[in-house]
Design goal:
By secondary structure, the protein is an alpha+beta fold. It has 3 helices and 7 strands, in the order βαβββαββαβ. It has helices at about 10-15, 55-60, 95-105; strands spanning about 5, 20-25, 35-45, 45-50, 65-75, 80-90, 115-130. A 6-stranded antiparallel beta barrel has the order 2-3-4-7-6-5. A hairpin with a 2-residue loop joins strand 3 (about 35-45) and strand 4.
Length: about 150
């Protein structure tokens, strides 16, 4: 028997920080939803990722966006999903020590090619769910010092 449970914001942040690939969702020029994978990093209240010119750079800054990360274990029918809703920002030339720190830290990307632009999503809300099989996997929790 599997058990579904809502996750706290603290657990959601911990889970976000444990992965490196997520999906950013936004409305494209044609008015339809677009969902694209990105390599990302959680930094304070920002989800940051790099991109080249194109749809993400054109559509994410200054607009409402969503970001989702999942971790699935199909063989045991368990996993979790975290959803962030927020506003996108172009951090490429943003001024301030927080933005400089974002650009100073390494963020590897799997997709080949130059990713010279930094985008961030300021977290407005964060929610998550976990589906666990009590016989095979304990619920994931952040370390006690979080």
């Amino acid at each position: 028997m599997t058990v579904a449970e809502e996750l706290s914001a603290e657990v959601c942040r911990f889970l976000l920080s444990s992965e490196e690939v997520g999906r950013v969702a936004f409305v494209g020029d044609d008015g339809y939803p677009v969902v694209l994978p990105v390599n990302y990093r959680l930094q304070n209240d920002l989800i940051v990722f790099r991109t080249a010119p194109g749809a993400k750079l054109d559509q994410v800054p200054m607009r409402p966006v969503a970001f989702e990360v999942d971790h699935l274990a199909p063989t045991v029918r368990a996993g979790w999903s975290v959803l962030v809703q927020g506003v996108g920002h172009d951090l490429t030339t943003a001024i301030g020590p927080d933005y400089e720190q974002v650009r100073d830290e390494t963020l590897e990307h799997w997709d080949p090619g130059a990713k010279d632009h930094w985008l961030g999503i300021v977290i407005h809300s964060i929610t998550g769910r976990q589906i666990a099989n009590p016989r095979t996997s304990p619920p994931e929790e952040p370390p006690a010092d979080l």
